[in-house]
Amino acid sequence: MRSTKLRKILSKISLLLHPFHKGVDPSLATPRSKEDWLGEFKGSQVMIPDLYALLPGWRFAVNKHYETVRTKLDEWMLSWVDDQENCRRMKLADFAMLAGCFYPDAEEEEYLMAAYYHLWVFVWDDELDCGPLTKDLEKVAMFKKETDECLNSTLGSEPFNGSRQSMTPMMKAFCDVAEKVAAGSTPDARSHMLHELIGYVDSACALPYRRSIEGDRELFSRENFLAQRARSGGAGPSLILPLYIYHLNIPSSILDHESLQTIFTQACLIVHLINDIVSFVKELRDDQLDNIVPVLAIEHRIPLQAAIERACELVCTARQTLEDAEKRLPLPTGNEELDKQLLRYVQGCKDVAAGNLHWSYQNARYFGSNPKREGNKIFLRI
């Protein structure tokens, strides 16, 4: 404790003696262990700025069927999630609100399936992140195999063709969702959904192996960190789901167009960055460093508040890149209905990115039940 205080005092003196390094925190200048970084960050006071201001002109809305879907979602969760603490945490997160913010124009059934899916994927991910599979690599391999088989049999080229094999309650729960999604989607849409889900599962299941090799070496560079987050962050399936939600018939040749691919990847990036900005305080309290805010603080040797500002700048850059890509959409296609569906899909991608931000402000998952606020600014202590 005494050495930590001494180091901070010396750091402040050093800052005064070296004014040309303005904005750089000398206490962060020497590579240290994970424990040292956590010790440096904990106790800090930070301000989460008004994140709505990062997406000017975008819409923030909640689906009108929210109350009905929330009731049905809670009932469905109890039918297959048998851990009471897990149920409590999932209710606190309010995935009916999440899906309602993501897909504000969805009809009730499609909205319900979206809420089912997002609850399911969070429970699924927790098995790897903080559940019984966290350090059991053999069980991770079995879990991945079981999940891949379920995804391919329900969303593949011949969905639900043949008798169902014996499944765990978790995989049966996914079938509840996939049956509706498969029936309400075109083959091209199913193919894209399956591709995104398989990619997410591959990356998420690879993380326990990486941790077993690297241990606590979670201090990525921004470039490496964002590449890892793009693979395992899970935003892709949410962004492709509007193809089912709004029953869009957009051929792969259009979906693969450069402008749409850019819109998709930048919307994913916005989701991941916003997630990290709103969650980093909670994660630091839980002794986790794999978040863009501490990664930026460590890489650039800057205080957390400055790192928050840099993360916000990344959001603005991604938004501008996305909006520039909108100007390059392959319109008109020569088919008026396809033109409308294409614009509906682009709006769906933007709704997911904006909805993720809106949901973060609507529940207590990250900021607690009664944080200190000034408008949309949130003040927190780590």
TrEMBL record:
GO BP, one annotated term: isoprenoid biosynthetic process
EC number: 4.2.3.-
A Pfam family that the UniProt record links to this protein: Terpene_syn_C_2
Enzyme class: lyase
GO MF: metal ion binding; terpene synthase activity
Entry cofactors: Mg(2+)
Keywords attached to this entry: Lyase, Magnesium, Metal-binding
Gene3D superfamilies: Farnesyl Diphosphate Synthase
SUPFAM superfamilies xref list: Terpenoid synthases
Family: Belongs to the terpene synthase family.
Protein name: Terpene synthase
Native organism: Sparassis crispa
